Structures are given as structure tokens and as C-alpha cells.
Amino acid sequence: MSAGENTGPVAWRDDTEPRFALTAEENGVVTARWEAARAAREQLDALVRSLLDALAGSHGAVWEGKQYRLKGLRAFRREAAAELLEGVPLEKVVAKVNDLNRYTLTFDPAHYTEGVRQTYALLHARGQVIVVGSERNSWEDPVYKAFHASWQQPDGQVKFEIQFHTPESFRAKSENHLLYDLYRSRHTRPSLAGERNATKAHELAAQAVQSGRHGRTPAKESY
């Protein structure tokens, strides 16, 4: 089904942004994808606990943000609706999402690089495959400093993201949460022509405030 097609009456509409709406067919596909992620949570939790068992003592690994390890259904519906408004086909929207299941690991800066490398090795040993193109090193970003990547099982049915932080960068992310949402809003929701200039100004203000909150970062190198 192509984006923008009128395939039936609205089955879901966001209560704060009326432009974000899904037909019954779209909502059914989006909801089914989210339910699959929820069903995979127990299995993925066990995988992450196995990583901690191997890395906590040697690399100081800590699992942070456990309450956010499954993206909310409303948030996913909003993202999907925004993508559809941008002309992305529904099949691609649900196929490319990697972060419905998402995990955050922190490492002490002295062990950060090796901790990330060992996490990769452990995931590969457990049969997980990196999602091509998912790796993002944003330590140079003035707002969001971290490294993250997504993995999947060989059959591609279960995907999950891991964000790698130091305690300092995770703390900054947590403190900056609302401002970060504002900063990224230009990139995750379509704007009406009259909104673009104001939204850009908001983004720049959020960026200026957030960039001053980050502490030191680990060595910048690829993983």
C-alpha cells in the first residue's frame, strides 16, 4: 500500500497532533509490529542480562533505562503516521524500524571502547547479526553523545537497538530528555510551512542549552 492513499476511515488519531492519523489497515499493521516487539521483550531481556553477566565485572557495564526498553505504542503510531505523511510506504515503515526494543548500556570511560567491542563479540557469538547501516557514532554531535547500533536474529524477525553511553553521557541524556525531543522534532514530524522557521529557532535554542551539559567523552574511534 502506498503512502497517502485514502484506504478507509481513520481508526486512530493522535490527541495532540490531528495530522497524525492511521486508517484501520495502517493501524492494524503498525499495532501488529509493536505486538511482535512486545512478545520479543522477554527473550531480549535475557540476552541483555547475559551481556551484563559477562561485562559487569570486567568492564563495569550497567543496564540503564530499563523502563524504556519497549517503545510505547502511541510513540510508534506517531512515528509511523509522520513517515506516511512524508510519503514513506507503510511496508517500509514497519520493516525498517529497529528500536521498538531498545537497550542502554553504560561503561566507565576507561573501559568504554573495549566494552563496546566485547559487546559486539558477545552478540555475534550468540548468533545476532548487525543491521547494515544502523551504526551511529554521535560523540561529535553537540546534543546527543553516544554510540548506537541495531542487531537482528538471522531470520530478521526480531530487531533491537543498543545505545552505548558513559555514566556522564547517560546522565546528560536523561537531564536533556525534553530538550532533546524538541531538538529532534524537526526531523521526526512534518511541519506546515508557517511552522518551519519557529521550529528551527526552537531547535537551535535547545541545541545551545543541551550542548553545555555534556561532560567529557571517551576516545573517539570507530567500533
Could you describe the 3D structure shown?
The protein has a single domain (10-189, 198-208), classed as Beta Polymerase, domain 2. The protein is 48% helix and 14% strand. The chain contains 7 helices and 8 strands; from the N terminus they run ββαβααβαββββααα. It has helices spanning 24-59, 73-85, 90-96, 112-125, 167-175, 177-188, 196-211; strands at 10-13, 21-23, 62-64, 102-106, 129-130, 136-137, 147-152, 159-165. The radius of gyration is 19 Å and the shape is globular. The protein starts with 9 loop residues before the first strand and ends in a 12-residue tail after the last helix.
Taking all residues together, what is the mean pLDDT? 82
Stretches where pLDDT falls below 50 for ≥5 residues? 1-6, 186-198, 202-216, 219-223
Please tell me how large the radius of gyration is: 19 Å
Multimerization state:
single chain
C-alpha geometry: globular
Strand content: 5-15%
Topology:
Elements: E1 10-13, E2 21-23, H1 24-59, E3 62-64, H2 73-85, H3 90-96, E4 102-106, H4 112-125, E5 129-130, E6 136-137, E7 147-152, E8 159-165, H5 167-175, H6 177-188, H7 196-211
Helix pairs in contact: 1-2, 6-7
Brief digest:
By secondary structure, this protein is an alpha+beta fold.
Characteristic key phrases:
single chain; 223 residues; alpha+beta; Beta Polymerase, domain 2; two-stranded antiparallel ribbon; 7 helices; 8 strands; globular; disordered N terminus
